[in-house]
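Q: Structure tokens for this one, please.
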Amino acid sequence: MPIDKIAIVIVFLVALILLQLVIKYRGKISQSSFPTTQNLNVYSRLSLSKTERADLISVGPQSFMVIFSKGSAPTVIELAPSDTMDAELALE
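A: Here is the predicted structure, written as tokens:
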């Protein structure tokens, strides 16, 4: 009887190791299919309260303000392009 139990444990452990290898291999494949995030930058993070914050981010040439609040979905506001903002600041 003990040989049967040992064989079952060994088979179970081999199955777990194979499952782990499959998951690791699939994870590497799916990560390589996503584009790189070189053009994503977080410029500023402002805490509005304990549960709310505002982030200023840019994705390529576009800028966004994202407002996070507890219990609701984030609000995304597209800002004017940086060229327009620079021109407005130069006029002031």
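A few notes: The radius of gyration is 25 Å. The beta strands are 40-47, 52-59, 62-69, 75-78.
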